[in-house]
Amino acid sequence: NPLNYKNLLSFTTFWWLNGFFTKGNKHDLKEEDMFQLLPDDRSEKLSYDLECHWKSELQRFSATGKKPSLFRAVLKTYFWEWTFYLFLGFIEEVLRTTNPILLRWLLRYFEVNSDVTMASAYIYASGIFLILVILTFLHHVLFYYTQRLGWHLRAATCALMYQKTLRLSQKALAATTTGQIVNLGSTDVIRFDWLGLFLHYLILGPLQAVVVAYLLWTDLGVATLAGVGVICFVMFLQSFVGRQFGKIRAGMAILSDERIRTMNEVLTAMRIIKMYAWEKPFEKLVSEVRRKEIEKVLQSSILKACNFAMMFVSSRLLNLVTFVTFIYLGGELTPSLVFSAVALYNVLRTSMGLFFPLAVEKLSESLISLKRIQNYLMLDEIEDHRHKLPPKSYQDCGVELNDFTACRFDYLTGYIKIGFGLYMKIAIIIGLNNVLVILPFIVDEASANMATLQDITLKVEPGQLLAVIGPVGSGKSSFLNAILRELPASSGTAKVVGQVTYAGQVPWVFSGSIRENILFGEAYDEKRYNEVVAVCCLDKDFLSFEYGDLTLVGQRGVTLSGGQKARVNLARAVYRRGTNIFLLDDPLSAVDASVAQKMFEQCICGYLDNKIRILVTHQLQFIQKADQVMILKEVMQLFCQSFTKCNFSVNHSQSATFLSIIHKVQLFCQSFKKFNFSVNHSQSAIFLSIIHKVQLFCQSIAKSNLSVNQSQNPTFLSINRKIQPFCQSIAKSNLSVNQSQNPTFLSIIHKIQPFFDYLQELLHPQRFLLRDSRHTCNGRPHDVFVVRLVDCCLVGLCTLLLYARSISQFYYCVQSGIRMHDKMFNAILKAPMRFFDVNPVGKILNRFSKDMGQVDELLPQTFMDFIYIFCMIFSILILSVTINYFVIIIVIPLSIYFIWLRQYYIRTSRDIKRMEGASRSPVFTHLSNTIQGLSTVRAFNMQDKFEEEFHCKQDLHSSAWFLFITGSRWLAFRLDAICAIFIGCVAYFSILTSSLNAVDAGKVGLTLTYAILLMGMFQWGTRQSAEVENLMTSVERIQQYYAIEPEAPHEIEGSSLPQGWPNYGVITFNNLSYAHYKDGPNILHGIRAHIKAHEKVGIVGRTGAGKSSLISTLFRLNEYSKGEILIDGIDVSSLGLTELRSAISIIPQDPILFAGTMRKNLDPFQLYSDEEVWNALEQVQLKPAVQQLPLKLASELAESGSNFSVGQRQLVCLARAVLRKNKILIIDEATANVDMRTDLLIQQTIRRNFRHCTVLTIAHRLHTIIDSDRVMVLDQGRVAEFDQPHILLDQENGLFSDMVAASGQ
């Protein structure tokens, strides 16, 4: 980093960046061209500093009970650094305030009968020039440091949030979503980047206002009070607008969270959505959330437009009111008096009219973001066991549970108002995934406190294998979570001695090579590695991959089959060195029987023979070799009661999750028109934000009466007084996006022109002012009243047009954002599956979060700034040249240099911005991956490694950001230098011209006053033009997705499908070959098969043989290479995708549910009655589980349906198929994660409900398909055997007979 070797001159002029810009103009910049970060800029150092102060806040909370404050921790971390920048800012503003005084002395030289000599005039001009040069050096160093402060705050809070993510408990994870966490780290923290720039103006602005008022008082006397009155009014107005920004931002953040969460679900489950042809319901869902978000964006944009207009109107208003008052009080205007006052007001306009309201706006937005981040940091954590001493010897290892009981539920008592002054006692229970259950008082506390695991007592010693079996939802995975300490005990003890590793039921594979996934941070030992690969039956798979174990897998292992992912997951656990205890959550269900048998014997019973192994399984043939068998059975019965009309009064005592209960209760009652809510508050850490969220959810509530017992928390009431108006204004606000519903706004839009003539706006009022002052100076009679009346009219017209133009421009920018989001989302929905296989979810999500956020919020304001400032600059140049022709001598060369400099800068700046955008995505992808595999990361004690990787990825992004802010200063310094030269030349040329002929003092004053405005404005305008171009990369990135090549048409006009097609379900594969992508290697080769109507066909084969790929061809998820598929004699390639996919039902290998009601998960189109839905649930053995939910079918499910076990989720998918009643049913490993009894019941359901349908069943449990009409055996993408089961069993050395023999069934 060149800053390590800088000298003072090089640093203040940013000369050290010259070499980098030269390189950027010669070739495209790459990652290796970026500079290394300075030690003080590194993510680890920044997070450590903030973490120390945050921990002290938490310790104070533990000791005194006072609520911790992230804002206070930030203040302690950065206060002294910010104080130094405040001092530099003070010096800068003192210099700015001195310039108008020198200008006044200079203008006296040009007045009639002046006593100022030419030498004095040159001294004053030199003083103005010297101050501008000093400001050029000082301002950009200060700007760099304040922007760096904002960057440090952003990086530190992001790292702090990531560290918190690694410690989140399962209950806390259920209370938030991946989309919400990503949104916090992408959108919320952006506010901090600009906070440092303006924050010191909260102090400097008012200070400067007092100084300027004093200086004006000495010149204008009492008339100054009129100007001060205007300033106070503007400050009050803009402070009010700033507070409104904070409120709107809070509402917008929640809606953005909801949209990002929904988008995350859609992208994660895109394969399922396409198979079900559910694109339209999800498009409608996202559109609805986006519509609500856009209402807030529009409100925010209109406030920004008013703020923007006020910024420029205020100076005209100020001048008008001050000088009219001064004249009416008998004052006499002179050019030196007028233009020194105007220059002082311009100084004040910059600090108070621009930077002060921006400081209020950014501070209010940042406080909202800090509050949201603080709420996240206050979520529940697991206990850290990483630093406990290892066992002294292997014999000391063991797992021992004594009377262990664990609950996924928190329990509170409360009272429900049932009318006539009567209350009924209730139990409010919130589950691990925020499922609310309300029990009437007849249930005693013992039965209400429902246990997931109850009175578990066991001991597992070294060398023993414990098999855990039980029906779906009985708590098998919860038992493993208890050993991992993810599920804390409510009573009893759990003693785990030894190093634990874990292979989860849902395999977790991260982006990288297969070898990296297996090693998982361990050193590569070739001998050990090959042994592990062999016992996990991965060696043959590696031979089939082009690059073997170095083959790259996409996010979530999309290029691997389900069985391959399960074996990689197991290999990771087995390879781990020093492990004594292996927790294996059903790793054998995803592989075929032969491979499962080999894995069990060679790996679990062979390679791990002397270790403690706890195996969860549904395959009972394996338990005969277990040393111990534990059978878990569901121990809880829920009596649920839904209340449709109630007012809640909850007596809060000690529950840590009380807040989320309050939130759920409010959601439960969101249809109420009137709501009274009383809380006895004691220890809630984030109660305030929950109340705010509740208010947002209850927008239909006309009046909210929130009363608090402040006896336990005296400070709460004062906070409540602040939050109550805030909540009510949010609840009442409703802005229509549809302009046809807002006639007032529409009429304004129609009356204005998008681009008002800035020359008139700028010059005309000042010409009248000049004319007025000239006539007054010369003492000639003139109708001053008429002049002032015209001046007032011009200022009034200016004000009206500015407001109208600002609002309309913001409005149309927001409309563009709406259209871009809709087009991008539509393109994503129509993209082929290959696109989602090669693009990580984090990368796509970044387009919808950061890029869309920039288009919605940053681009409109930057674009307006750019247009206005450049029109101002152009006007000032014309004014200067018109008044003094000599100025053109300097304007031409400076203009040429400026044009060259901007082009020179833009070439490198574009690359810097591109690298900044590219280096941001990996940060969010890493965060998303971590959340998905959090249990595995913690089980392997890899938190430090993952945190280190996060710091590396954030440092890479910080390197690009460092170049962005220093590169901007490099340009800005040179532009301000141009301006200083231009202003100095204008001053000198004016003095020179006056020696040749008489020069009007008013004209010189007008020229110099506006020329000084160029200082800062010129570089800011150029920066904004570059920023517009940079922000347009977000538009470009969004529009890149427009060009995604869509899959085949979803609907074909004029389609002549027979009524009720397919009527029989006859399927013919004719010489079918299939590759995952165009010109890729074929996965299926020349498949020929004819499946008769209503035939039940079992499809078996080793993992990776092409079974799931065969199913993909039926749904045309990717187009096949050659051949054809006929269904009832019709080539499926001639059909629209919606017609084809809606005609086939599937129960997928990876069952996915969506956040939303149970009913919407089963029937998003609302095509079936409640009776049919209940019937479908009953047939798949899920009716009792759904009846236990608080609102039954209307109950909200958690993200990805995580409040159901994997087996239960597969049953929900089966219920969908039962409802759809299609003639073709595909079952892809649907019963892999259910117990034998449930599997048997499901098979009976399928045979009964689908006896008149064609059923294709992929299964590794051979008993599932042994009674099929025919069995298809796939091997390496080819049909090896296809016949009736008994015929295949009779074949000696046949693949199917070998598989049956290997399974032992």
How would you sum up this structure, described in words?
The protein has 1305 residues and is α/β, with parallel strands linked by helices. Helix content is 59%, strand content 12%. The chain is built from 42 helices and 28 strands. The strands form 7 sheets. Strands 4-3-2-14-15-16 form a 6-stranded mixed beta sheet. It has a 6-stranded mixed beta sheet with strand order 22-25-26-19-27-28. A 5-stranded parallel beta sheet has the order 8-11-12-6-13, with helices on both faces. Helix 7 packs antiparallel against helix 29, helix 10 runs antiparallel to helix 12 and helix 12 (279-328) runs parallel beside helix 28. The longest helix has 54 residues, at 943-996. It is elongated and about 125 Å long. It starts with 7 loop residues before the first helix and ends with a helix. 51% of the residues are buried. Mean pLDDT is 75; it is low at 409-413, 416-450 and 635-782.
